[in-house]
Amino acid sequence: MALSAKWEEIFGADPGPVSAQGGGGARMTLASAAAAGDGGGPGIQFSKQPWTSASGVAAQLRTSSNEALTDLGHDGKEGSGGTTGFDATAALAEIGGSWTDRLTSVRGECDRLSEALHTVGKSFGETDDQVGANLKAATPQSAPSPRAR
After folding, report:
1. Residue 63: CB partners within 8 Å, gap ≥ 6?
2. Alpha-carbon gap, residue 54 to 62, rounded angstroms
3. 14 near 7, Cβ under 8 Å?
4. Could you give the residue ranges of the DSSP H alpha helices within the chain?
5. How many CB atoms lie within 10 A of CB 79?
6. Whole-model pTM over 0.85
7. Residue pLDDT, tens place only, 96-108
8. What's residue 39's pLDDT?
9. Of the four listed, 49, 87, 90, 139, which is most buried by Cβ atoms within 10 Å?
10. Left (φ > 0), alpha (ψ -120 to 50) or beta: where does 55 sit?
């Protein structure tokens, strides 16, 4: 199958020739890329917001995991009084230890993710202006038409 036929099958249009000014042909853009309104090329926008938001969610989950660990510790101590000899006491103790291990792992991973996502968001925030300036500098400015003079 020829490339243009495959392209049309996938995207519904022949790519056609694309000029240096970005005209002609079908365009694909990232879902997060906003098209520039000035007739130039695609205006890709970088944002730290999704990364810092995800970092906040991971931090909240870390806090919830820590609270659950605290509750599990209190419940295990309070629940053991007067239950000696019951089969359920041993099973609950075994399950409690297993859940303590799991919640400790979740808490640690959420802590790690929160820090990593925050670092990525901070990096995007610090470099966003520089990347935008570089893209703007690299985009050729169209000369005014002779009629406009």
Report:
1. none
2. 12
3. yes
4. 3-11, 49-79, 87-138
5. 14
6. no
7. 888 899 999 999 9
8. 44
9. 139
10. alpha
Which has the closest alpha carbon to 40: 140, 129, 144? 140
pLDDT in tens, 23-66: 445 555 544 444 444 444 455 566 778 888 999 999 999 999 99
Of how many residues is the chain composed?
Answer: 149
Residue among 31, 32, 36 nearest 21 (CA):
36
Q: What integer is the mean pLDDT of 72-99? A: 71
Q: Which residues contact 96 (CB under 8 A, 6 or more apart)?
A: 72, 75, 76
Cα–Cα distance measured from residue 66 to residue 82, given in angstroms and rounded to the nearest whole number: 27
pLDDT grade for 113, boundaries at 50, 70 and 90: very high
Task: Compute the Cα dihedral for 28, 47, 127, 120 and give only its sign.
Answer: negative
- Predicted local distance difference test score (pLDDT) of residue 74: 67
* Residue 65 contacts residue 106 (beta carbons within 8 Å): yes
Handedness of CA 51, 54, 60, 62 (dihedral sign): negative
What tokens appear for 106 in the block? 């979740």
